[in-house]
Design goal:
Elements: H1 4-17, H2 26-35, H3 42-56, H4 63-67, E1 73-78, E2 81-85, E3 90-92, H5 100-113, E4 124-128, E5 134-138, E6 148-152, H6 161-166, H7 172-183, E7 188-192, H8 198-206, E8 215-219, E9 231-235, H9 249-257, E10 263-266, H10 273-281, E11 289-293, H11 300-310, H12 315-325, E12 328-334, E13 340-350, E14 356-364, E15 370-372, H13 376-384
Parallel strand pairs: 7-11, 7-12, 8-9, 8-10, 10-11
Antiparallel strand pairs: 1-2, 1-6, 2-3, 4-5, 5-6, 12-13, 13-14, 14-15
Length: 392
Amino acid sequence: MSTPALVERVRRRLIDSIADSGDPSPAVVARALRAEGVVLGDEAVLSLVGTLRDELAGAGPLEPLLREEGVTDVLVNDPDHVWVDRGAGLQSSGIRFASTDSVRRLAQRLAAAAGRRLDESSPFVDAQLPDGTRLHAVIPPIARDCAVVSLRIPRQRSFTLDELVAAGSITARGARWLRAIITARLAFLISGGTGTGKTTVLGTLLGLVAADERVLIVEDSAELRPDHPHTVCLQARPANVEGAGAVVLADLVRQALRMRPDRVVVGEVRGAEVIDLLAALNTGHEGGCGTVHANSAGHVPARLEALGLAAGLPRPAVHSLAGAGLDALIHLRRDTSGHRRLTGIHVLRLDPSGFVQAVPAIGFDQDGRSIEYAGLADLAARVRSAGIEPPG
């Protein structure tokens, strides 16, 4: 039976001996055990080999969670507090690290795997691992006592609309309206707070796009995996350690527009790229879409205004572009039980003063009932103008 102390002693012996391969073999582990004066049976040695592989080249104690189907987030606060989200909110995982040093080593190893540095001169990192997992880590003294690690695991496939309906995230009537928005090539944003499923729903809707359309996806970190035969994905790049070489989303949106897109998709609108996206939606690029963080649909115009102003676009111009270029706003919410669901579809409409308002069109309560609002006629007219019959 191996113990954390034994694993740590063997790990220290193996660091030099596997520097080239990074993969401890059973024979190498057996030699290290003999050097420690420990004799284990074949089954115990193989188990220790797996543990050491995770510790030296993988995610250590977190590996079982990262392999578990349905896990979306793994958060390490300190050696004794590791949290996991399996889609229903955060829960204590029961996993423990041997020490604060082991958490720090994990953070630095993961950062290195992403091609980034994590040390006193660069005490935090936001990067993507080779398998697509999003890594964020902070080490002391920025983090008070222990390195803090946050991992967001991308879904390996997109859900279908029928699956989201079956899961209760979208009602049947809501699904019909979402399908109509895609078919009519309306431009839309998906809004919601952190962890409400914006990327999941966007990936699902992109899977409904006609197969003969070319979809250009621009993301900070590649998360969208739509089930669509013609997608081209562009990913932003951070600056290197010298502070050079950064490629931001605004650059990529401009490049995407030169690649003969049928639809331009921005995974998350959160910076200067809002100007290029809104400009594209006002110059003949129909069906463009993206996600934006907002606690409510009513807050989206203010969010777009803030992003536009920060990028140097005057307030009236932001509202004019948003009002003319965006057709619909799809809002998601995560309730207190951790359940993610579609709460409503809105239309963006310029008011008499020239500012955009999010006008409710149809809402969906937690019991699956739909509520019609004044904006529904406007939404139906926009769908109908594309030659598509609005759903009932």
